[in-house]
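Q: What residues go here?
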């Protein structure tokens, strides 16, 4: 039996969860059709998800068609949970991108399509809600080609759209399909230009090949609630999306390339973590090569928030393969438990070929327990939630608070509800502020020889050098001292204190992308203790950092604004005044699309002012993209940089 791992992606409220329910029901995986409104769907099983009617965490469910098992990954639609979607993209064989026939192409839809095309992931487009009043088909196809991708062709057609009588019929690949394919397939182009005309079989073969390599997108119509067009969508998934199947050596072979990765040892990715009934952490693992069976000992690689890589080892105490198999084989997904617990992003057997590119959250908030006696449980709960979503980056802050990084206000609201319902903790969040970062500007060195006498008297010798590290490396610590010059406990004390100290830099922001090297060390036995090294390290490190200097960076967001043509000048003037750097302006009458990058602290102001300039017709989307050095004259941390992150 082959396996397809298919992601369901869409703008919020386009019908993702309803489509998942319909697919499971139609193929016998569930005995009744769940409803988002009733709060009884299979994949939205959390209390908060059911009350709000939105997906917060990616969920996996499976159904079988013939000799193919389809694992459905239902992903969140709200932009505050973008990390969940990014993680899911890594483990997919293909995707279904939903549009509403009523609302059409929305801001989040464009962001998702860009990500899918960047990964060249086989993607089918499904136009949902064709039976709703106001549904469009032909006009919507034009919007798809203009706003999403020109490389698309409908494989179904609709009669009586916008009425309860709406029905779907298969549209065989024809000359119009061939003309669309000619833009991405040289053989079809040559046949159209030089002859002979491509046959239906030629077009079908090219359609399968170009869908498989992610350059072309078949489009289907239907209704998840009514069931129209869903069978045609499933037929398209089975015929056009290639599965990843294991080879004889335990690696994986992709049907589209024939290439092999990996070896006999299992390798895969943890893309989701859920709390179990007894408080244990259940991890969802997508396996790319090899096999995993119960009681097997596994070693995962984990990238820590400071950039270090650590190992997590243990035996599998629980293994539930999606679909019911006893052993997890390449291409499949399983929920498993390992003593000590796994985190999202942990890698089994090393990195994969298609790792997600996470844009870090840019909104920082402080969390405190409303009741002082819950301070310690709050800290434990936040650390547990950070294991489920490591981009939260929970860390201690002043006055017993915990600092968190988030993508937006909705995520903050969901987190507060989760703490109250799952942990019984009432938490208070400070208003979100945009997070700044410091990076070393140069190299600085400082040292103190033992005995270093002041009011505290540290029996330690420490010399440290601070220098810039590679972009995106986080923090790294190394040694130039002789191996064994210090006891292991003293080495560990210095390293841990370095990383903890650099959580606050010269301006108060966290330091990142640094390399600290221990260049001198010494101790006096039996007087020296680890406490001496923990006490002296921050003093030496601060002096070295001051000599190196730091550059303050602020986060930017990539934006896209679709605005009426007669408001283009006013909109670009506004964005320029907010510090935008423009990357493109396309379109014409009746609308222009403006793209660029904007400081994250100014995004909220743009969102609030755009409707007034565009008669409420602007469509705005933004996402975290990078950070840049703070321009002279702008305020830094703690000086009114409150902002908003998200769409």
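A:
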């Amino acid at each position: 039996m082959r396996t397809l791992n298919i992601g369901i992606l869409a703008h919020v409220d386009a019908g993702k969860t309803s489509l998942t329910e319909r697919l499971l029901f139609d193929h016998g995986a569930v005995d009744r059709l769940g409803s988002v409104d009733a709060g009884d769907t299979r994949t939205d099983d959390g209390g908060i998800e059911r009350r709000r009617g939105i997906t917060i965490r990616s969920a996996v469910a499976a159904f079988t068609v013939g000799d193919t098992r389809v694992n459905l990954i239902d992903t969140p639609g709200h932009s505050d949970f973008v990390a969940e979607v990014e993680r899911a993209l890594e483990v997919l064989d293909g995707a279904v991108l939903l549009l509403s026939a009523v609302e059409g192409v929305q801001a989040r839809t464009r962001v998702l399509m860009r990500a899918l095309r960047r990964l060249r992931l086989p993607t089918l487009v499904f136009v949902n809600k064709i039976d709703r009043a106001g549904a469009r088909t032909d006009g919507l196809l034009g919007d798809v080609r203009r706003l999403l991708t020109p490389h698309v062709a409908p494989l179904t057609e609709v009669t009586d759209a916008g009425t309860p009588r709406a029905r779907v019929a298969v549209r065989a690949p024809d000359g119009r399909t061939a003309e669309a394919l000619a833009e991405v397939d040289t053989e079809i182009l040559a046949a159209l230009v030089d002859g002979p005309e491509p046959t239906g079989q030629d077009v079908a073969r090219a359609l399968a090949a170009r869908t498989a390599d992610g350059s072309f997108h078949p489009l289907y119509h239907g209704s998840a609630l009514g069931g129209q067009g869903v069978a045609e969508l499933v037929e398209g998934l089975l015929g056009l999306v290639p599965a990843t199947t294991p080879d004889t050596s335990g690696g994986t072979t992709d049907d589209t390339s024939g290439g092999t990765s990996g070896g006999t040892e299992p390798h895969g990715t943890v893309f989701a973590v859920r709390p179990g009934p007894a408080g244990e952490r259940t991890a969802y693992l997508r396996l790319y090569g090899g096999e995993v069976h119960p009681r097997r000992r596994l070693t995962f690689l984990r990238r820590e928030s400071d950039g270090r890589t650590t190992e997590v080892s243990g035996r599998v105490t629980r293994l539930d393969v999606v679909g019911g198999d006893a052993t997890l084989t390449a291409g499949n997904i399983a929920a498993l438990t390992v003593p000590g617990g796994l985190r999202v992003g942990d890698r089994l057997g090393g990195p994969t070929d298609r790792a997600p590119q996470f844009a870090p959250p840019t909104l920082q908030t402080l969390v405190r327990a409303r009741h002082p006696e819950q301070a310690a449980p709050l800290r434990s709960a936040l650390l547990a939630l950070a294991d489920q979503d490591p981009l939260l980056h929970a860390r201690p802050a002043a006055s017993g608070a915990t600092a968190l990084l988030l993508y937006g206000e909705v995520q903050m609201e969901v987190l507060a509800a989760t703490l109250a319902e799952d942990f019984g903790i009432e938490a208070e969040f400070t208003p979100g502020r945009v997070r700044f970062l410091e990076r070393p500007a140069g190299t600085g060195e400082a040292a103190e020889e033992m005995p270093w006498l002041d009011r505290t008297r540290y029996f330690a010798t420490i010399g440290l050098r601070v220098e810039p590290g590679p972009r995106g490396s986080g923090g790294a610590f190394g040694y130039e001292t002789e191996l064994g010059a210090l006891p292991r406990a003293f080495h560990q004390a210095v390293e841990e204190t370095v990383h903890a100290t650099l959580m606050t830099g010269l301006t108060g922001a966290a330091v990142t992308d640094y390399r600290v090297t221990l260049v001198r060390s010494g101790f006096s036995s039996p007087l020296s203790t680890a406490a001496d090294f923990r006490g002296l390290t921050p003093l030496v490190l601060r002096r070295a950092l001051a000599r190196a200097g730091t550059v303050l960076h602020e986060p930017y967001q990539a934006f896209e604004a679709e605005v009426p043509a007669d408001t283009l000048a006013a909109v670009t003037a506004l964005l320029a005044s907010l510090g935008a750097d423009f990357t493109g302006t396309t379109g014409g009458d009746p609308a222009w699309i403006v793209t660029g990058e904007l400081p994250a602290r100014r995004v909220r102001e743009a969102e609030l002012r755009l409707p007034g300039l565009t008669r409420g017709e602007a469509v705005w989307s933004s996402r975290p993209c990078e950070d840049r050095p703070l321009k002279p004259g702008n305020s830094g941390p703690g000086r009114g940089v409150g902002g908003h992150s998200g769409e």
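A: Context that may help when evaluating the design: The chain has 15 helices and 36 strands. Residues 52-56, 247-263, 639-647 have pLDDT under 50 and may be disordered.
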